[in-house]
TrEMBL record:
This is Class I SAM-dependent methyltransferase. GO terms for biological process: methylation. One of its GO terms (molecular function) is S-adenosylmethionine-dependent methyltransferase activity. It is an enzyme of class 2 (transferase). Keywords: Methyltransferase, S-adenosyl-L-methionine, Transferase. Its EC number is 2.1.1.-. It comes from Neisseria leonii. InterPro entries: Cation-dep_OMT (IPR050362), SAM-dependent_MTases_sf (IPR029063), SAM_O-MeTrfase (IPR002935). PROSITE patterns: SAM_OMT_I.
Length: 222
């Protein structure tokens, strides 16, 4: 038994990926394309996607909500995991990145499972609530611009069913959340500090944050 974690060196991460479920060729192709992209670091880490899809199988997810698509790694991974009748509602505002995502969905043979809403995510989330979709999603994944994270969270809490899961990426801001934000800090810094601090006191959810990627918070709705 150990009370400390083993440092996640590049060699150890490579080893862990080798002993886990093999990466689907469609996902490997997206990751390879992201490696050559100047914004490629925005993509979800493979181990994060692997955990989310593992959880989706565990709770028998059928309806998945994604806020922040980028080039489609996480949405493709989830679409490959969901049953044939499973559906993904994807939210983003960047036509260029999501064009790459749509190509990836087509190449992976999962485009029919995904509906893309190309507008500010809060508009889409409010529309879904107005349409009576509250409590209809099994999982939601928030991986978008950070200042609106609390607003995304509150909408997702309405849209996800009891027992469902909300995942939030980049919750650590590269470790900056450990330190007081200077007066000229980006808005995301104090916003995420306050958001993280509030989670243990939110009786609507059961929270856990894992040191995967830049921090992955998992919240189960009570």
């Amino acid at each position: 038994m150990s009370i400390t974690a083993t440092a996640a060196t590049p060699d150890l991460l490579a080893y862990l990926r080798r002993i886990g479920e093999p990466e689907h060729p469609a996902l490997a192709a997206i990751r390879a394309a992201n490696t050559g992209h100047r914004m490629g670091k925005m993509a979800v880490a493979p181990e994060q996607a692997a955990l989310l899809t593992w959880l989706a199988r565990l709770i028998r997810a059928e309806n998945y909500l994604e806020i922040g698509v980028f080039t489609g790694y996480s949405s493709t991974a989830m679409a490959l995991t969901l049953p044939p009748h499973g559906r993904i509602t994807a939210c983003d505002i960047n036509a260029g990145f999501t064009e790459l995502a749509q190509t990836a969905w087509q190449q992976a043979g999962v485009a029919d499972k995904i509906t893309l809403h190309l507008q500010p995510a809060l508009f889409t989330l409010d529309e879904l609530i107005a349409e009576g979709k509250s409590g209809s999603f099994d999982m939601a994944f928030i991986d978008a611009d950070k200042p609106p994270t609390p607003h995304y969270y509150e909408r997702c809490l309405q849209l996800v069913r009891p027992g469902g899961i909300i995942a939030i990426d980049n919750i650590l801001l590269g470790g900056r959340v450990l330190h007081d934000a200077p007066p000229n800090a980006p808005q995301a810094w104090p916003v995420l500090q306050a958001f993280n601090a509030a989670l243990p006191h939110d009786r609507r959810i059961i929270p856990i944050t894992l040191p995967l990627g830049d921090g992955l918070t998992l919240l189960q709705k009570r």
